[in-house]
Design a protein that fits this description.
127 residues, 4-stranded antiparallel sheet, 11 strands, 7-stranded mixed sheet
Amino acid sequence: QVQLVESGGGLVQAGGSLRLSCAASGRSYMEYCMGWFRQAPGKEREFVTGISWSGRSTKYSDSVKGRFTVSRENEKNTVYLHMNNLKPEDSAVYYCAAVRALERDYVGVTGLSYDYWGQGTQVTVSS
């Protein structure tokens, strides 16, 4: 079992930056692939980015590529989402997710790929 708690959301102007954190508790955190998803009102949840438990592999959605960066500190059981040049369309509830991965470089890109989810943190970008 892994428990995930997101933090760092808030209100920011377009062009600004935020850093989200996801703190994980539970055993063998290092063996978990971590992902970030988001869901805006009236829209389906969408994949944002993911990072393998080795930290060597990452994947990004086209909408955030070049603006967002995912990283992890296994010694702190924490994964981060660095968001730059934010746009109003980035406004959503952001969720952290985890799945135990047998392959150290595996990165899941769909919601069904993940077994554990956080409660989410709201990000609002004003124009």
